Amino acid sequence: MRFTSLVRKELRQYFNTPTAYVAIVFFLAATSGWLFYVDGFFARGVATLRPYFALMPVMFVFFVPAVTMRTWAEERRTRSDEFLMALPYSTGEIVCAKAIASFCVLALALLLTAPVPFFATMFGRFDPGPIVTEYLGTVLFGAAATAAGCLASAITRNQITAFLVAAAALGFFLVLDTIVVFVGLGGVFARVVSYVSWSARFESFVKGIIDTRDVVFFVAVTAVMLRLTVHSIEAGKSR
């Protein structure tokens, strides 16, 4: 009960300011604009949303940092972090509450994309199976990105820096395997990079394939990022 009240408090902070609304509108406009105008959905003549979901990680590079940049950096700016840490919650509870609230904003944005698949059914036969898989992959990728964004906010002192650090980190994880191909590296190093590349892990979901290894990967990344955030906050308290 205490934990849910903490999550609600964090959610209220999001929707008491324009940040969440602006980020969601930007996300919806950018993804829809890409699908229907840039990617040429109408001209393609095939009712597929694979390019739409393939773009989601790229959008998250900007959308997620915009949502998570305030989680800890804003607390430090207003000096409310000391009051927050004095509340009868563990550091882990506070970190998880902030991450869940941030993820709820992302989940709301994804929920608002639900009309897109229904609209696409007007232009041909549509198999709902791949759509469910693509949404699952997007949710898992988004959870890992949210946890990474919270970590970036925890190790920085202001929101702009938190945004830039998170965007750079997410962008790096997204293009890591592309960099390896471009440089021409191979062998064991290339296999290791492919294993930790977020885009390589996400690709199977876009193809409509649920690989448990990819599910475990994103869940593990989310857990590790949250644990590192707890460690960062604990280290800050001891200084």
Write the layout of secondary structure elements.
Blueprint: H1 2-15, H2 19-38, H3 41-44, H4 50-68, H5 70-77, H6 81-86, H7 91-111, H8 115-120, H9 128-154, H10 159-183, H11 187-196, H12 198-206, H13 212-238
Number of domains: 1
* Structural Rg: 19 Å
Largest sheet: none
Tally of strands? 0
Q: Brief description of this entry?
A:
The chain has one domain (2-238). The chain is built from 13 helices and no strands. The protein has helices spanning 2-15, 19-38, 41-44, 50-68, 70-77, 81-86, 91-111, 115-120, 128-154, 159-183, 187-196, 198-206, 212-238.
Question: Mind explaining what this structure looks like?
Answer:
The chain is globular, with a radius of gyration of 19 Å. It has one domain (2-238). The chain is mainly alpha-helical. 82% of the residues lie in helices and 0% in strands.
What key attributes describe this structure?
single chain; 239 residues; mainly alpha
